[in-house]
């Protein structure tokens, strides 16, 4: 099913969804940057730029309470968080690199244990993707098998039209349902031509080749060479649409408090630190290796997917300029040489 | 990130023609030192894969010295790589480091704190007209609009006390001191207004700790903010813990910060962290006459005292 | 000899960090001399003002204090020679930092109270209690505690309540 929607109607659609009591998370201008945030009105929608952080926090919050506890003479009482309380959400304006991420993450959150915090949010969210018509020199979605017009992960997909407005394609039944329910905002597709998709600079990488090199090179001087520069912050992981590691902390007092789940990053020295003081990944190269291995080998081994959508955020914001696309190219070239 | 840049003077290019000769000089000096064997490594900058970008480089052979560059994208304070946090590099022996004036202040600070000895390092200073602020497009040249906010008020364009200085600068443009203006604006607000200003900024913090990890002075092997028994600061990225973290960070850097503003540059959430450092530097100058400089000081202002220090705030 | 206790709408919580050698002994003297002072002050003793980390002050505000008092030996009287001299500089800097992030400095007081100054202790504590009572509760840090990033906000009323009541 394919229709069109005007810029104005897209904003009105947001208002209509909000009026129904749902939550609309979409790119919004936050002073110096764009962020995915809940909108208060359709006027706040700003689709001009790729948001600084990915949209993963819609499903996987930066920090969330998973239980409360209270201790008195009678014992310990535990208060559960009921995922049923999570709001119905429309994630609007997710770029293909962000929209595709949850479909990759579903596997890990429903593998040996069903993480209801993630899964319930996922069930309650409809994703309206947006094709990219501009890319910068850090974008590399095409290198990892995605594209600026890729509809994977989206329920509805918007493509900007030459004369303004968007072509809107229903990708899933969920998307179709939303489109039918809000039919008054959509019109039949006309002859308007879509804007040409962006052309990210990244040449397609041979991920299979890269993986085969990773399979045999857990120990390799390359890791030290790359990670000599890494300062061990979590900027890459926290901006990444696919990084999904978390830590769990108890906060409050012994008598009363909360257990919270919050983002963590394998670049941190503390990430693998044992209570004994022993740290199995005690130097940065081992931590950086884990980042690459997890994305391009371990996740593939386990779930058959690559844990990278090529959004380029880690490249743009690495404080020391580490470029994951350049590293992958380097690895690919090694395979050719060897 | 500098969001005020638009409202000031018309955008004009800044002359960085001397960076080419600086690059040549750095390459020649690095090759000479490595050939002679007087250093085991040179820490400098090289081009990134994306056109117009630069990143730190650790060069250990004379042939590789030709990869070194200096450009308006050479933003990093490389002094970081000489600290305990990155001790692997120094294990190899004496090293040379490419340093802008602001970076040399950090080196001096580290020497003052006995983290580094002058004779352990060869300082290859660069005469620097300025580097680009975060948010500047990778391809564009240095202009009065995209120059880093710290560079607008730089007093060490051509630093003293190094082993060599690469390049020489012609006249530099007069630039409005945007950071000083912003600081004055905040100081003129009521406490409640300042609270909401910082609350808004800190609420965006994701606790990636890039501010800590790029700071040459955050070299503690065990950060007190990572401890949980007892826990000084909540580790969860919630507004409460974020506020506490940034207060503690600023306090621990008071009197030590060399104002390289790396924390602010590295912050992916655009929190103007250097305003906190700058404020503390200003207060410590007023109170105790302390200023971060190019020469190591034996003791920082909070590590010493005078019997007649001001105590007008104490009953 | 007990004056009738006046009823107030708001009793401020004040945390006082004191050194054991001077101010703690001074407060003790006030007590043994049967001097009256508001019970709003919770005294926590330290070996020296030099041991009082600025983080403690921050933590006190975070945990719900409406005011904080730091008190120790007069300059020159430090049991450890210079602990209070170092503390003086540290606190001079820290109060400027707190002021810059938006904390009203009227909520944070410093004093030198010697072991012989029971009267001064009463004066300092009474004065601070009254001025903070007049200012009302410190709400900034308390409000911050209940705030969440939008992605982790909980919608249920029960949980919100459980959650807000956590100290």
Give a topology summary:
The complex is a heterotrimer of chains A (338), B (315) and C (167).
Chain A: E1 2-5, H1 7-19, E2 23-30, E3 33-38, E4 63-72, E5 75-80, E6 89-94, H2 96-99, H3 101-109, H4 116-123, E7 125-130, E8 156-160, E9 166-170, H5 173-181, E10 187-188, H6 207-216, H7 221-227, H8 235-239, E11 246-252, E12 256-263, H9 284-303, H10 313-317, H11 324-337
Parallel strand pairs in A: 2-6, 6-7, 7-8
Antiparallel strand pairs in A: 1-9, 1-10, 2-3, 4-5, 4-12, 8-9, 11-12
Helix pairs in contact in A: 6-9, 6-11, 7-9
Chain B: H1 18-36, E1 41-47, E2 54-59, E3 68-69, H2 88-91, E4 95-99, H3 101-112, E5 121-126, E6 164-166, H4 178-187, H5 191-203, H6 210-213, H7 239-253, H8 262-266, H9 274-288
Parallel strand pairs in B: 1-4, 4-5, 5-6
Antiparallel strand pairs in B: 1-2, 1-3
Chain C: E1 14-19, H1 23-32, E2 41-46, H2 54-62, E3 67-72, H3 83-101, E4 108-112, H4 118-135, H5 140-146, H6 157-164
Parallel strand pairs in C: 1-2, 1-3, 3-4
Please provide a written account of the structure:
The complex is a heterotrimer of chains A (338), B (315) and C (167). Chain A has 338 residues and is an alpha+beta fold. Chain A has 2 domains: 2-188, no CATH class; 207-337, no CATH class. In chain A, 31% of the residues lie in helices and 22% in strands. In chain A, the strands form 2 sheets. In chain A, strands 3-2-6-7-8-9-1-10 form an 8-stranded mixed β-sheet. In chain A, strands 5-4-12-11 form a 4-stranded antiparallel β-sheet, with no helix packed on it. The longest helix of chain A is centred in the last third of the chain and has 20 residues, at 284-303. In chain B, strands 1, 2, 3, 4, 5 and 6 form a 6-stranded mixed β-sheet that branches. The longest helix of chain B is centred in the N-terminal third of the chain and has 19 residues, at 18-36. Chain B is globular, with a radius of gyration of 20 Å. Chain C has one domain (14-137): Rossmann fold, CATH 3.40.50. Chain C is 43% helix and 14% strand. Chain C has 6 helices and 4 strands. Chain C has a 4-stranded parallel β-sheet with strand order 2-1-3-4, with helices on both faces. The chains are: A alpha+beta (338), B alpha/beta (315), C alpha/beta (167). The interface between B and C is large, with 47 and 41 residues.
């Amino acid at each position: 099913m394919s229709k069109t929607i005007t810029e104005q109607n897209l904003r009105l659609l947001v208002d209509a969804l909000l009026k129904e009591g749902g939550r609309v998370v979409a790119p919004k201008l936050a002073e110096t940057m764009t962020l995915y945030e809940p909108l208060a009105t359709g006027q706040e929608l700003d689709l001009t730029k790729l948001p600084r952080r990915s949209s993963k926090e819609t499903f996987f919050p930066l920090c969330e309470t998973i239980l409360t506890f209270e201790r008195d003479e009678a014992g310990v009482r535990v208060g559960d968080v009921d995922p049923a309380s999570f709001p119905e959400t429309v994630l609007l304006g997710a770029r293909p690199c962000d929209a595709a991420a949850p479909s990759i993450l579903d596997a890990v959150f429903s593998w040996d244990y069903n993480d209801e915090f993630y899964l319930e949010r996922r069930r309650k969210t409809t994703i309206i993707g947006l094709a990219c018509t501009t890319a910068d020199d850090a974008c590399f979605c095409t290198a990892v098998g995605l594209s600026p017009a890729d509809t994977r992960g989206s329920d509805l997909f918007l493509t900007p039209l030459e004369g303004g407005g968007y072509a809107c394609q229903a990708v899933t039944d969920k998307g179709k349902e939303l489109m039918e329910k809000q039919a008054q905002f959509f019109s039949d597709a006309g002859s308007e031509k879509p804007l040409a998709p962006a052309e990210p600079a990244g040449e397609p990488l041979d991920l299979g080749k890269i993986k085969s090199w990773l399979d045999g090179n857990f120990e390799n001087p390359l890791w030290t060479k790359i990670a000599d520069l890494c300062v061990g912050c979590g900027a890459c992981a926290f901006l990444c649409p696919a990084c999904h590691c978390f830590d769990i902390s108890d906060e409050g007092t012994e008598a009363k408090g909360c257990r919270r789940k919050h983002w963590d990053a394998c670049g941190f020295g503390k990430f693998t630190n044992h209570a004994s003081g022993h740290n199995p990944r005690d130097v940065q190269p081992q931590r950086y290796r884990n980042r690459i291995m997890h994305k391009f080998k371990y996740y593939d081994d386990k779930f058959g997917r690559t844990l990278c959508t090529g959004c380029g955020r880690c490249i743009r914001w690495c404080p020391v300029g580490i470029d994951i696309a350049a590293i992958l190219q380097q690895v690919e070239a090694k395979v050719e040489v060897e | 990130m500098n969001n005020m840049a638009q409202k000031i003077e018309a955008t004009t290019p800044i002359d960085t023609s001397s960076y080419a000769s600086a690059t040549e000089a750095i390459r020649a000096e690095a090759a000479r030192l490595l050939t002679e064997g007087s250093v085991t490594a040179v820490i400098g900058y090289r081009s990134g894969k994306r056109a117009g970008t630069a990143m730190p480089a650790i060069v250990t052979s004379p042939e590789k010295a030709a990869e070194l560059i200096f450009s308006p994208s050479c933003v990093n304070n490389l002094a970081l790589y000489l600290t305990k946090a990155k001790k692997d590099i120094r294990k190899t022996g004496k090293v040379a480091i490419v340093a802008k004036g602001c970076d040399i202040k950090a080196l001096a600070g580290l020497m003052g704190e006995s983290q580094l000895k002058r004779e352990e390092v060869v300082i290859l200073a660069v005469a620097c007209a300025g580097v680009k602020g975060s948010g500047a497009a990778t391809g564009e040249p240095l202009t009065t609009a995209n120059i880093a906010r710290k560079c607008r008020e730089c007093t060490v364009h051509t630093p003293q006390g190094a082993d060599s200085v690469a390049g020489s600068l012609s006249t530099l443009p007069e630039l409005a001191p945007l950071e000083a203006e912003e600081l004055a604006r905040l100081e003129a607000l009521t406490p409640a207004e300042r609270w909401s200003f910082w609350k808004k900024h800190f609420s965006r913090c994701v606790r990636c700790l890039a501010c800590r990890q790029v700071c040459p002075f955050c070299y503690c092997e065990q950060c007190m903010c990572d401890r949980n028994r007892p826990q000084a600061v909540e580790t969860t990225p919630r507004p409460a813990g974020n506020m506490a973290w940034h207060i503690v960070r600023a306090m621990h850097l008071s009197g030590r910060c060399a104002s390289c503003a790396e924390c602010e540059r590295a912050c992916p959430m655009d929190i103007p962290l250097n305003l906190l450092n700058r404020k503390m530097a200003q207060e410590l100058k007023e109170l105790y006459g302390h200023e971060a400089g190019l020469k190591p000081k034996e003791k920082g202002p909070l590590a010493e005292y005078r019997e007649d220090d001001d105590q007008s705030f104490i009953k | 000899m007990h004056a009738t206790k006046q009823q107030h709408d708001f009793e401020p919580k004040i945390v006082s960090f004191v050194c054991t050698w001077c101010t703690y002994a001074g407060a003790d003297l006030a007590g043994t001399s049967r001097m009256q002072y508001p019970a709003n002050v919770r005294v926590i003793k330290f070996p020296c003002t030099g041991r009082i980390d600025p983080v403690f002050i921050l933590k006190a505000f975070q945990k719900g204090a409406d005011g904080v008092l730091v008190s120790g030996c007069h300059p020159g009287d430090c049991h450890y020679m210079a602990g209070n001299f170092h503390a003086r500089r540290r606190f001079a800097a820290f109060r400027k930092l707190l002021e810059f992030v938006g904390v009203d400095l009227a909520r944070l007081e410093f004093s030198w109270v010697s072991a012989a100054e029971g009267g001064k202790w009463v004066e300092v504590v009474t004065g601070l209690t009254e001025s903070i009572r007049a200012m009302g509760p410190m709400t900034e840090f308390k409000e911050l505690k209940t705030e969440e990033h939008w992605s982790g906000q909980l919608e249920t009323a029960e949980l919100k309540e459980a959650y807000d009541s956590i100290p």
